[in-house]
Design a protein that fits this description.
By secondary structure, the protein is α/β, with parallel strands linked by helices. The chain has helices at 21-40, 57-69, 90-95, 118-123, 126-139, 154-173, 195-202, 211-219, 223-236, 246-270, 291-298, 309-321, 436-446, 460-470, 483-499; strands spanning 8-14, 47-50, 73-80, 100-104, 145-148, 177-181, 205-209, 238-239, 274-276, 302-304, 331-340, 347-351, 366-369, 381-384, 390-399, 404-414, 428-432, 451-455, 473-477. The strands form 4 sheets. Strands 11-12-17-16-15-18 form a 6-stranded antiparallel barrel. A hairpin with a 4-residue loop joins β15 and β16 (404-414). α6 (154-173) crosses α14 (460-470), α9 (223-236) packs across α10 (246-270) and α13 packs parallel to α15. The radius of gyration is 25 Å and the shape is elongated.
């Protein structure tokens, strides 16, 4: 389902023609070696493509417009090997519409103390040239990522690779289409928002269908297809009958299999990448979609409960950004449920009624069939498990009336050693940074939702870079957060965004 494009990133080196042909030849050789080294590092998730040295306004403008037109180019990495007068870059930068990374580096790692002369100084002056370029980008108010350090350093390469994932998220954002099956949960505020502004800002298309439109696809699924998927379920997961009749249990599981196939066919036929459901609107469905939504999320679809289209789109976005990561620990829709307030062990138990993505599972998921008080339908089947431990990010995109705000909380997902035999849902137990008390107070002051898009594979830096590229407000809650500083930041942001309207 994910299968994003075979994206590449262009490497554009800046110089000028005053240094002569020999110098420009050296510039080209150096930049080619750098690109080869970056690609050979194994730390970049996408290929870097070398481009000829840019020495005047015409070549710069041509390069950037070609990058705009190339559907496989996800961004441009710029580096000034020598001094490149920044006025040459204005037109190209004005017309450029994709992510930009300014790599502030130089070809040589060290100063050649014994041999350095003015020829070397004139040729290797990235400390000079990159500042000229950086000035014009700042003056023009263009959002970009700046990475500083020697290009061969592992830390630098990892930062470039991390930004690449954000850049792909920026590119793919404009392709996200969310289907709202039914409407927002009645009387709930935080899951709603301005869908037109979301398309303007993020490129998301958010459409509504009646639940009966999708139910028709579910009802049309054949018994043979349903049974085949049930067999896949039984071979993939542990089955917890817990006293239920086996045949009756299997019928409940078959309902979710039929829903998975029907929903997926609807999504594929109508080209949607994320879906929301609402337990207040289930006409034509026997059960609230549970296991079916969990499975679709694991395949790369975004999901939001109770009509929460913002979180559904964010889950899809974050799955795209983390696609192909080695040793990935997972990304999921999540909800804050209940606190553990034992002194020194404070944490939040995360779950949802049914729909938590098994990509985050720490153990082999089990299928349970249990009653659900909401939805007024038969007992739904769902996957039950606990989450992988590790550091992650919980993100809440909210509409505060005048603008969108992305709240990013760094969290530590804890190993769940104490069983909860009577809780028939998937769970995660995490400690928000800097601690539960300050983290929860900060979240509430910032207006964060009870739903989050949660990932154990992405970082707050990546999510903040995406928000910056989208031109929206970002609030970070991390180990350095204090309530006093957060309140001031919220006040300053209010003033800054009012001025920039």
């Amino acid at each position: 389902m994910l299968k994003s494009k075979d994206y590449k990133f262009w490497f554009a080196t800046g110089s000028q023609d005053l240094y002569g042909d020999d110098c420009l030849k050296e510039v080209a050789e150096h930049s080619k070696k750098m690109v080869e080294g970056l690609n050979a590092s194994g730390l970049l998730p996408f290929e870097v493509v070398w481009k000829p040295t840019l020495i005047d306004s015409a070549s710069i403008r041509k390069c950037f417009n070609e990058a705009n037109a190339d559907e496989f180019c996800a961004g441009v990495i710029t580096w000034m090997h020598t001094f490149s007068p920044a006025k040459m870059w204005i037109l190209g930068l004005q017309e450029f519409r994709k992510p930009l990374l300014h790599l502030h580096t130089q070809f040589n790692r060290e100063i050649p103390w014994d041999t350095i002369d003015m020829d070397f100084m004139n040729t290797n002056q990235s400390a000079h040239g990159d500042r000229e370029f950086g000035h014009i980008v700042s003056r023009m108010g263009i959002e970009r990522k700046v990475v500083v350090g020697h290009w061969s350093d592992e830390k630098v390469q990892k930062r470039i690779g991390s930004w690449m994932r954000t850049a792909v998220g920026v590119m793919e954002s404009s392709h996200i289409r969310v289907v709202r099956v039914g409407d927002n949960m009645r009387d709930v505020a935080v899951t709603e928002g301005d869908k037109v502004e979301a398309e303007v800002k993020f490129g998301w298309e958010i459409d509504a269908y009646n639940i009966t439109d999708v139910a028709e696809y579910v009802q049309a699924v054949s018994e043979a297809d349903t049974n085949a998927l049930v067999e896949e379920y039984y071979s993939s997961y542990d089955i917890l009958l817990e006293g239920r009749d086996e045949k009756e249990f299997r019928k409940h599981v078959a309902v979710q299999a039929q829903q998975e196939i029907g929903f997926k066919r609807f999504l594929e036929e109508h080209n949607y990448h994320a879906v929301v459901t609402n337990f207040q609107m289930l006409s034509g469905l026997q059960q609230l979609p549970g296991l079916s939504m969990q499975r679709l999320m694991q395949q790369g679809y975004g999901f939001g409960g109770e009509g929460d289209w913002k979180t559904a789109a964010m889950v899809r976005l974050m799955k795209i950004m983390s696609e192909g990561m080695e040793e990935a620990k997972g990304t999921s829709f999540m909800e804050d449920y209940t606190y553990h307030l034992s002194p020194g062990k404070e944490a939040i138990l995360q779950a949802h009624m049914l729909e938590v993505c098994p990509s985050i599972a720490d153990v082999k998921p089990s299928i349970k069939v249990c009653p659900l008080s909401m939805g007024n339908r038969e007992d739904p089947a769902r996957l039950v498990f606990t989450s992988n431990p590790g550091k992650g990010v919980a993100c809440s995109l909210i509409d505060i009336g005048t603008r969108f705000r992305l709240i990013i909380n760094e969290v530590e997902c804890l190993k769940q050693d104490i069983p909860m035999p009577k809780l028939p849902v998937a769970t995660a137990l995490w400690k928000p940074e800097p601690n539960l008390i300050t983290g929860a107070e900060s979240w509430i002051l910032a207006g964060g939702a009870h739903h989050t898009a949660f990932s154990l594979d992405l970082t707050s830096e990546q999510m903040g870079d995406w928000g910056a590229a989208m031109g929206i407000e970002c609030i970070f809650i991390d180990k350095d957060t204090t309530i006093r500083n957060l309140k001031n930041e919220l006040r300053w942001n209010e003033a800054a965004f009012r001025l920039n309207k």
